[in-house]
Amino acid sequence: MNTARHFEPEDLALFAMQLLPQDEAAAVAAHVEQCAACRQNLTEVQGDLAAYAHTVDLHTPSAEARERLLKQVAREKKTIPIDRVPEKQESEHETIPLASYGRGLGRGEYLPEEDPPHRRPAGRLLPWLGWAAAAALAFAAGNLYQQRDALRSIIATQSSTMNQALPGVAEARQVMEALTDPTAKRVVLNVTPTEKPTPQGRATYVASRGTLIFVADNLEPLPPAKVYELWLIPASGAAPVPAGTFQPDAKGHASVLLPTLPKGVEAKAFGVTIEAEGGATKPTLPIILAGE
Amino acid sequence: MYRETGLVNSPPPSREEDAVLLGQVRKGDEQAMAALYDRYSKVVYSVALRVLRDSAAAEDVLQEIFMQIWRNPGGFEATRGSLGGWLAVVSRNRAIDALRRKRPMDQVDELTLPSSYNLANEAERDSMMEKARVVVRQLPLEQRKTLEMAFFDGLTHTEIAEMTGEPLGTVKTRIRSALITLRKALTA
Q1: pLDDT at A114 over 60
Q2: How far is residue A207 from each of residues A157, A186, A271, measured CA to CA in Å?
Q3: How many structural domains does chain B have?
Q4: Is the residue at B45 inside a domain?
């Protein structure tokens, strides 16, 4: 990045107000990231704009707006992680006198090595109780370990499911936006009525986003190694743009969702042809379905 | 303004208090969220209302911005200057997005403000607002209108040039000059 060629403060002001065309804004953003001087200038401009924003006449939002916000806040209560409290357990351990462990008598006195203690029945049982407790702890720890592994596995599965679902959600949202966009061009593709059922296609296209959704019904089955191919015929008179190949199912239904298309190409019409498997770069006549 | 926020006998709020409130919001403190709302909702709403000229739409922007703070209080960092300034600019940007019927852009919130204005201090904010209003009123008419068209109406310099018949360079210079005059007056 060439940081020597700085942007004019005028352009930084327009950038701060998000009034630059997308490509220019991207160039400024990239430069500002690298250039401390322009970053500083931009910061100053943002401050000017913040001050300017404060020149508005003040109005108080309705009480309902506050209530609505606080209700929503209450609905979205946060989950705060519970603090762990291992310190207490540790301190409890520390309070146990060292002498109570091993060979201690509980008063800080130790028996001489050559003088083994006289063991009462309860005394003989105590070591076994210790081992039993240790075994129980080991068993419990094993159980916890297994539970932890099981939980990890569940989390991994759910995380993977979510990751798989996310692109689908984004795509569904894109489809929904295109279908409900009032600026979308909606085209019904027909053939001259001959016999029923008549093949028919419907294209929904948003030129600014390059989003196309195409659904067709009553399509004839194709010969082997052939596919239907959808074409976008640009209003500019440019060559038809391939917009995806498809094959109908047993009921003659087929669809093309969100093919890769350049953005901003205004469509004059759409057409469907039959092409060899893999699709073609130019449409092969005849055009099976067409619509403007 | 203290009376309106119920802070008559409290010391003026500061940037540190904003940081404390944000910290409490991060821990899920709904009262802290209400306090932030009471402190800044007027500015956020008024900026959005000025852009959208529709109270319902402005309240939607207000709700959206404060819910963003609730969901992600870390989205605003103290290094970005005053929360009040940040909220005012974000409100303007969100309102312009709503005007253009665009999805909010991430870039909207990516802004850093200088530390020269302490907009968290209510008294200082009042004083700054009054001074800024006076400066803006005294700007040459064409500068004032051009800045207004760009900031509050979201018109690009090309659109302004087409509407006013002025060259593009003149439009840019007017916006810049107006902002410089404002800055000089506020930092004097």
Answers
A1: no
A2: 39, 11, 16
A3: 2
A4: yes
